[in-house]
Fold each of these.
Amino acid sequence: MRNLPIDYLKIDKSFIHNIESGSSDLAIVKAIITMGQGLSVDVVAEGVETKGQAELLRGLECRFAQGFYIRRPLEAADFEAAYLPDDSHK
């Protein structure tokens, strides 16, 4: 993996779903984060839906997350208005 041109490892939401219950998914998430740190790539946890998941991931030094807890999906027009320069979505 160290020879692949990657910048991020993404942790699938199926592993995030049960991490608060101490399942084997927690061990997998820890391993992915450790591997990302060892490879000097950022790790993104997807499917973060609760404060507990977000706090646990923060404690594991996962710096990036996406999911409903972070922000609900936006309609295209709302995304464009919020994130694109005024003249780019005309």
Note: The mean pLDDT is 89.
Amino acid sequence: MYAVDFETTYSSDVNIDTFGQWHYLRHPSTDIYLVSIVGPDVEYVGRPEKAPWDKIDGKHWVAHNYSFDGAVMDVLRERGVTKAVPSTFTCTANLSVFMGAPRNLGGASKELLGVKVDKDPRAFMKGKTWNDVVALGKAKEIEDYALNDSKHCLDLAKTFSDRMPEMEQRLSRHTIEMGWRGFCVDSALVDKGLNVLDWVRIKANEKLPWANDDHTGEVLKVSELARACREAGIPVPPSTSEDDPACIRWEEEFGEKFPWVAAMRDWRKANMLFTKMEILWKRRRPDGTVPFGLKYFGAQTGRWSGESKFNFQNLPKGEIHGVDLRACIVPRAGKKFIISDLAQIEPRVLAWLCGDEALHNAIRHGYGIYEAFA
């Protein structure tokens, strides 16, 4: 096994959350300035261009969050830095959560190896280039930090990989690879949807007495809403959550008399969907696909969970202001979508583990899970 760990520049303006991983790694401001490699007869830290890739080509690679490090390797291959590929790979972040430990390397090392990892050097790198680090006399500290991360990663893999069943290892790799592959979107439908939702925001904004001209800043500011309610002589809603029954009743009671009440609801719904659609638009690749993040063993039960600010496992259903987000995700050419769902798998299995035969008998007789539980 060979542990591989990359360090890249990042800042408040250029980062994965803002651009998505694929575009972030290809952004002109992003420099892949350091790689650390640890394994049999190899201990290297330095520029990727000088790394001993020939020594680890075709070998078993491990990385903590291989979803990122493997994506970095794709960029290096695109640029002709290396042609090296692993025979297989292990993500020690996924291994750690399977073992019941934290996903992050610091928490995993402390929990599973009894080693404290100092992550301050990584925080120090925010907004700095490698030249900045050298000028500040911190190069050796950052190199040692990167090298130690690889050593801890390798220790995790060597110590615990045998405890992770082969099926779980395959699921871990498959999750990462399908995230890289991404899904296909109907670009024209995304563009149309954004235009429609932006127009809804603009028209709603015109009815809000406290909103500013760019329809983005003060629309949902609670203090402004409260002031408008007091001036209108109506109660302030206990919350502005669209799912809160009290908020729904408040909107129904006052929405017709005060147009800005309904306008606020329209703006909020349109903006929620606009934000999700905008992520699709920003993260599209030239081939019309969008890569995505998905956490293997993201929940305590072991099921997957969404990440990267776009949870495609929990997309809005149906149309909102005539825009259907799910319809924007389409099959690749020659493919088709099917519904493949382990219906309410967690409560069903939990009931079985608890011996709740009454619930299962109701399900067997045709009741849905919620009615059966009631």
Note: The chain has a mean pLDDT of 91.
Amino acid sequence: ATVNPNPNAPTVTPATSCGPGSVTLGAVCGTGSTANWYAAATGGSSIATGANYTTVSLSASTTYYVSCKTDLGCESPRVAVKATVIAKITDGGKIQSNEDICPGKTPALITSVTPASGGDASLAIEYIWLQTNSLTNGVCQFETAIWYPL
């Protein structure tokens, strides 16, 4: 009798979606074996084979499992790979209001903040500050600071 070894476990690539949608997960198996995708850590039938698996449209983060399997039926342990769905920000919030100033002037202190809502509270929200410059006949027409959530 010949005892064939199980292949090594796959190297996996998780994926993230901003809002509901499908994501493509990845798995790399060694030579002579193929990635087999599962919905459960143990048991059940394979839901797909191949290096990439595109999920159905997801509205919540979901963990899938993948193993490497040889033509002889030898199979590695399953490895978890996460399809992460991050809820979209529904309102970017507000930092006071836009402020118009001329060059060399100091803007007012930020005194009123309405926080952003929606999204994943465990993730930081990053803001980009933009400004515009405009002169008409050499006279300052205002610089306006506008912010947008990323």
Note: The first strand starts at residue 11 and ends at 13.
Amino acid sequence: MKVETPKKTKNSPESSLSRIGVDLSKSTFHVVGLDADGKKILRRKFNREGFKAWLARPDLPRVIVAMEACGGAQWWGTHCQSLGHTPMLIPPHHVKPFATSQKNDINDAEAIGEASLRPKTTSVPVKTPEQQDLSMLIAARQGMIKERTALAARIRAFLLERGVTLPQGISHLGERLSTILDDGTNTLTLVTRTLIRKLQNSLRCLSATIGEIETMMDTLAKTDETSRRLQTIPGIGPMVSASLVAVIGNPKRFRNGRDMAAFLGLVPSQHTSGDKIRLGRITKHGDTGLRSLLVEGAQSAIRAAEMTGSGKMKDGKLRAWILELKKRKDTQNKAAVALANKMVRMAWAIWTKGTTYTATA
């Protein structure tokens, strides 16, 4: 159905618009307009080109354009900025409590508009093209790692059905699989060998592509000044620094490093009532891939702090803190998560102040 762009009439409420809530889709866009008092004064339905033309109208007031942080929202945020509007990308879980009626597009747009009025509603920053490139590489790498893990598990399962076992780990699979397939004394049939060789080729292609993506991320991290400064922190390498820049965007939207660590899910969950304070496992909010990279980086920093020969961490307050942390925590993982939290707080301080990390005694 063709959706016509509405023409402005003499008594049009568009002149009183302060913000709009938009329910995004590929082709149809529902808009709810609010005035300065938060009163709903406009309801519209557009097609894609009609919505773009309506936003670009010179007689339309410059407004806050609230939308869910979903697929395509980053492009619309950039487009709204180019037209002088102020985009507000709201995480979907902040919109859901305001959807008080039945599920449809216009009600979703109203819920987005209501959520944008609340002062405690957080928004996702509009990323630069460079940050979007990094986000794309991170998402592609995470997806391919999952595909590679699933493919490796499938190969192991096929071999196990024929009485051939392999230890866990991609490296073991790469080292031993060719030897097993070339061994004519085992119970593998010709069909099994042919299929697993094809799966092996797919596994190699995935590993090669993952390596190329990591090389691209390393290159981008080396050319970015912020990434280079973040890499001075022990445990933060090119992969972690590039991911931080892509996911966080602007660190000044957080009041302090603790808030940034909480945004990434590296703080204990709370189940507190009255005077009883109960702390549980970490919340695991935020980006899963970045949090995993931070914990892996923290584990490498702990190993460096425990070393005594070449490659050990420089002596200083951080190394002493890590060694003391290891004594207090009963598992390596707890120590790694605690250090990851500290790394994020240090990254916030270095990022916002424009400094670098220096080991101090």
Note: The chain has 13 helices and seven strands.
